[in-house]
Each structure stands twice: as C-alpha cells, then as structure tokens.
Amino acid sequence: MLINRFLTISRQLTAKITKPNNTFRLAALSVSHASTTTKAKDLVDELDTPVKFTSSAAREWKAKTSRVGYESVRLWYEPYVIVVSLTIFMVYFGILREENDVDEELKKSLYSRIEGLEEHQLRVSLKYNQEHSLETSQILERLAEIEREKSHSK
Questions:
Q1: String of DSSP letters for 45-101
Q2: Which end of the chain is more exposed for a tag (fewer CB within 10 A), N or C?
C-alpha cells in the first residue's frame, strides 16, 4: 500500500530531499502543468502526514519475525516420511546390498596401503613413551616383527 503510493509519487514528480531547520521535506522541482502541480502538492502533503499505526500493516507485524524470520509450517506426516525413508535406505545399504570391490578396498588398513607408515608411527610412539616413562614392551615387540617381515621379504 505504502509502496504503491510512493511509486505513484515518484512517477509524477522529480523530487529532492532538503533539510531546512533539521527537518526533511520532499520538494517538487519542476512540474509543467498546474493540475499536476496541485496533485503533486496533495501527494507531498499526504506523505508528510503521519501514518496511523492502527490502520497500517505494521500493526500485524511481530517483533519475533524481525529476529528469527518466518516460521515454516511443517506437515504433520513429515517426520514419518523421513523415518521410513531412512529405514528403507539403511536396510538396503546394510543388509540387502552385495559387497563389491570398493568395500574390499575399504577393509584394508592404512598401514597396508602406505609403505613404512606403521614402522614410523611405532618409532614416534616409542620415543614418546620413553620420554614419559611409559611402557614400551608391546611397541618393541611389534617393531621386531616388522624387522623380521622385512628380512623375510628381501
């Protein structure tokens, strides 16, 4: 409503904002016809008058909407649709689907993929445990196993 009034005024006049005595007023610059001038003055006067709060759209505005936005209304059956969809997907993915080569690759450990990673990790853990007086027997055993595996493979 207010936007329509403003658009009508902006089509009919060329306007500028002036600031006499610290009040802003809309002033008509140049209008060719006298009838347009009176219409423009009437519209300017209408804009200068305050808008009644009780008759404006601002009366229905909720302050909460300014902070959090509009609440979206969800359908009553939406949670049931989501639960059923997720259940069907999990049954398919976990039970019905056959394993493929990607699943086999994912079962391999990271140490079997990167040569020397386990040995390096064990040496770092051994150094840390020795510096902090923690037990190192299992780390030393695994390092010995890795050394034996290296010597057998060569």
A1: HHHHSPPPSTTSGGGG--HHHHHH-PPPPPPTTHHHHHHHHHHHHHHIIIIISPP-H
A2: C
